[in-house]
Amino acid sequence: MVPIDMSGKVAIITGAGRGLGRASALKFAQAGADVVIVDVVMENAQSVAKEAQALGVRSKAYATDVTDADAMEKMVDEVVAEFGRLDVMFNNAGVNVITSFVDSTLEQMKWLEDVNLFGVYNGCKAAVKHMLAQGGGVILNTSSQAGVVGAKGHTPYTPSKFAVRGLTQTMALELGPKNIRVNAICPGIIRTPMWEQNLDQMLEGDAAKDPARRDETFNSTIQARTPLQRPQTEDDIANACLFLVSDMSLNVTGQSLLVNGGLTMT
Ligand SMILES: NC(=O)c1ccc[n+]([C@@H]2O[C@H](COP(=O)([O-])OP(=O)(O)OC[C@H]3O[C@@H](n4cnc5c(N)ncnc54)[C@H](O)[C@@H]3O)[C@@H](O)[C@H]2O)c1
Q1: Which residue has a Cα nearest atom 40 of ligand 1?
Q2: Residue 132 and residue 152: Cα distance in Å, rounded?
């Protein structure tokens, strides 16, 4: 048996109050890591921190908005002071709005850049100074399948997620010699609350309230285009994230790992 052992490591995960961030945080905790749960929704963050504690690791919740650079720096400084170190910074928090280019607004563009790109930047900036001081660390940033190829209806989203990959590659180049690995995870299609919001916007009126129409829309979106013909699960993504933050990927940096059933190949 080859175990993935994260015991003694400290990980911060943003947007971990639900969805993929929660699944990854609990996966890291199952591997033995202490996990710091960051989300704008404190109630959710606290609930996930309790779930992690039940797995036998230290965990703490923070209601920190990733778009607030000062608050992110303060949060990370406090974590390092309290937990003693920082091994993993997982910048996962993200938002989406479904709109065509024609209907999109500059306000939407700025909002998604603010959370999906500058939020990632703020997390990296706050973490790297500690990783430099301690001689290494791992950063994982959430991009998307829609950060690798264009996606209809995702005008504000795709540029923000493409940019995350650019930031990831440049940081990997500069920080590799300092023993800091920087990678991106590119999830495909997972039916988290974010996707339920997507379906609200893809369907109109009564159709959006009909569970059968919602299932049909979701399944047809996937089956037509995916070689493995199934959506991804939160666990699929969490497993890949665990690989990327663990010592199993010690020689992997600057990469964007697509976990998408083969929907897009690079
Ligand atoms: N679900 C998918 O199909 C999918 C596909 C590709 C990429 N992604 C990406 O994966 C990440 C997680 O997605 P998810 O599906 O779990 O979404 P989700 O909406 O279920 O969870 C996102 C979490 O981030 C939190 N959040 C939002 N803005 C924040 C902010 N400013 N500061 C701190 N926390 C904030 C939310 O409160 C929420 O708990 C996102 O970056 C998303 O873009 C998701």
Answers
A1: 94
A2: 40
